[in-house]
Write a structure and sequence with these properties.
By secondary structure, the protein is mainly alpha-helical. Helix content is about 70%, strand content about 5%. The chain is built from five helices and two strands; from the N terminus they run ααααββα. A two-stranded antiparallel sheet has the order 1-2.
């Protein structure tokens, strides 16, 4: 999968609150489909559909542990999404720094005007 396609798949997968909750749960450790389905008012097949989206995006993998197939969080796609977001965070930080400088300059100018 091309990097931009992987990033698109990651953001599409993360767009759904159920899938974000599943990712949050898996951040605490591996879990079975049954364990992942417990907090949701939906069927196991519906949870399985969400898991397939996460799996296609590369956000989770499924292992084999005797009869269980535990789901495991895969961090690489999240790292790529974070790197993409971080570039824009740097952009906004630079804008905020310019705004802070402008406000400080205006404050000094106003204080100087009051003295005269």
């Amino acid at each position: 999968m091309i990097a931009s396609d992987r990033l698109d798949a990651t953001f599409i997968a993360l767009a759904d609150p159920t899938r974000r909750a599943i990712i949050a749960r898996l951040a605490a450790g591996d879990a079975s489909v049954t364990e992942l389905a417990e907090p949701f008012a939906m069927s196991q097949p519906a949870i399985s559909k969400h898991l397939k989206v996460l799996e296609r995006a590369g956000l989770i993998s499924r292992g084999r542990d005797a009869q269980r197939r535990p789901c495991h969080l895969e961090a690489k796609p999240l790292e790529a999404a974070n790197a993409w977001i971080e570039r824009y965070a740097q952009f906004w930080e630079a804008n905020f720094q310019r705004l802070d400088a402008l406000l400080a300059e205006r404050s000094v100018t106003r204080a100087a005007q009051r003295l005269h």
